[in-house]
Amino acid sequence: MTTAQPGPRVEAVLFDTFGTVVDWRAGVAAAVDSFAERHGLDLDGQDFALRWRARYQPSMEPVRTGAREFVSLDVLHRENLLEVLGEHGIDAGTIEPGELTWLVEAWHRLPPWPDSVTGLRRLRERALIGPLSNGNLALLARMAKNAGLPWDVVLGSDVTRAYKPQPESYLRAVSLLGLEPGEVMLAAAHNSDLHAAASAGLRTAFVARPSEFGPGQTTDLEPAGDWDLVAGDLVELADRFTGPAWSVDRRGR
Amino acid sequence: MTTAQPGPRVEAVLFDTFGTVVDWRAGVAAAVDSFAERHGLDLDGQDFALRWRARYQPSMEPVRTGAREFVSLDVLHRENLLEVLGEHGIDAGTIEPGELTWLVEAWHRLPPWPDSVTGLRRLRERALIGPLSNGNLALLARMAKNAGLPWDVVLGSDVTRAYKPQPESYLRAVSLLGLEPGEVMLAAAHNSDLHAAASAGLRTAFVARPSEFGPGQTTDLEPAGDWDLVAGDLVELADRFTGPAWSVDRRGR
To answer: Which keywords appear in this protein's UniProt record, sorted alphabetically (chains A, B) (predicted)?
Structure first.
């Protein structure tokens, strides 16, 4: 499909990670349930995960505007966790620091969607692949190693020093790969992310993840833009991404 | 061996790349010979490779001292190539730019030593692994994909914005991994690299590569420091690196 379209060959496909490649809701809920059981706390893991994630976008906003110096997502996740614990009447000061770190690092241990590893392995034959996520490099590297995500390269938001949808987050990643924006495709389950990537000149692939936020999800059920590629999961994405095998030798392209 | 020593557990092993993991001399010589044949030039690939590499350290020096703004190794490789071509009486202006780029990218296509892929695969079970090289990210990512190097993470000198042996090159890599210097080991075939890493607080592993510079090599034939680990190749390194399997769950360590 991509080769049939005008424009340069797509050399690299970068992925939104939380929600697109891994199921953050299931992973965080399981960690919270385990944490609650060990500490004799009454917490609903699923509800807690949604509340923790709801603070994600607002917590990055001061960094995006420049009101706050860049801090990594691990730092924001910890701050947001303390707030959600507070909402539940739990004083984080009473909890052993190592236990809090373990809970913050639930985001390092997120499970892939069932199709993710197979799809990425297949796509890797035709393109260089990696995450383009708001996660920091340590988080993404540890997640990948644990979940078996076969990335060629791991680019964290602490490498680009920018949070999506800031244009720099896309363009610095493209530049580090030594490519032009039109040679890179972003794959994401979120239309807003794809809009920002397209504005920066990248190619786009929408992957539906209709249960990311649970059974009541109302957003991002369908593609809402003229994306280069649309797929139901990462295996379908890999199969729709046709063209020659990836080669380190660019002569003659 | 490492677990029997005092200090924290080694979570990550980072590798010098040119000479330690890949055979730059063979890869560059083959590309030069192919280039010479296509262009009807009289060049000795082996000799050319050594001359090109001889300009490597001097070309980074102005960047290290701050006399020159950071430029990537791809840029330095190109500048150094033009000089070596000039030494041979070849005006690079007469050569198609795509052909020059192809030759610069010989450094993206370097072959691994025969033990490298097996050793890295084995070590990867017990530690997070990646390059810590003066190569830029695009170079290292493409080299890894082509050579089958199973890195968990790829850190380029254009990510740390420093060239070894600057302390920042080691310490920024450690920091991006979310680790302390004592939790990271540098593996290298060059004693000077290990000295600098040890001074920055990292653990060290020496891997002998006695034919890196050809049959007449006189340097780095033996370890010249009190390194934590010494191995004849990367398979031996992996086998000497004992301890539990790597786990994303750091609770209880």
So the answer is: Hydrolase
Q: Predicted ipTM?
A: 0.95
CATH number of A2-23+110-240: 3.40.50.1000
Question: In what side-by-side order are the strands of the sheet with A12-15?
Answer: A128-131, A12-15, A184-188, A203-207, A229-231
Residues of A in contact with B128 (CB under 8 A): 141-142, 145
User: B8 falls in which pLDDT band (50, 70, 90)?
Assistant: confident
CB of A19 closer than 8 Å to CB of A116: no
User: If you measure CA to CA, which chain A residue comes closest to B98?
Assistant: A251
Partner residue facing B141 (CB), from A101, A152, A247: A152
Residue B203 to residue A173: CA distance in whole angstroms? 30
Looking up tokens 């200090």 gives B7
- Would the CB atoms of A153 and B137 count as touching at under 8 Å? yes
Residue range B2-23+111-240 in CATH 3.40.50.1000: yes
Residues with Cβ within 8 Å of A1's Cβ and at least 6 positions away in sequence, in order, are A228, A229, A240, A241, A242
Q: Residues A141-195: pLDDT tens digits?
A: 999 999 999 999 999 999 999 999 999 999 999 999 999 999 999 999 999 999 9
What pLDDT does residue B6 have?
61
How far is it, in rounded angstroms, from Cα B116 to Cα B119? 5
Q: Give the pLDDT score at B2.
A: 43
What architecture is domain B24-108?
Orthogonal Bundle (1.10)
At B142, which amino acid appears? R
Which of these, B95, B151, B126, B109, lies nearest to B18 by C-alpha position?
B109
B2-23+111-240 against B24-108: fold identical: no
B129 three-class SS = strand
Mean pLDDT of B149-174: 98
Cα(A102)–Cα(B248) distance, integer angstroms: 10
Domain boundaries, chain A: 2-23+110-240, 24-108
What gap in Å lies between CA A22 and CA A162, rounded to an integer?
A: 21
CB B13 within 8 A of CB B187: yes
- In which residue are the tokens 């970068």 written? A14
Taking an 8 Å cut-off on Cβ atoms, the answer to whether B153 and A137 are in contact is: yes
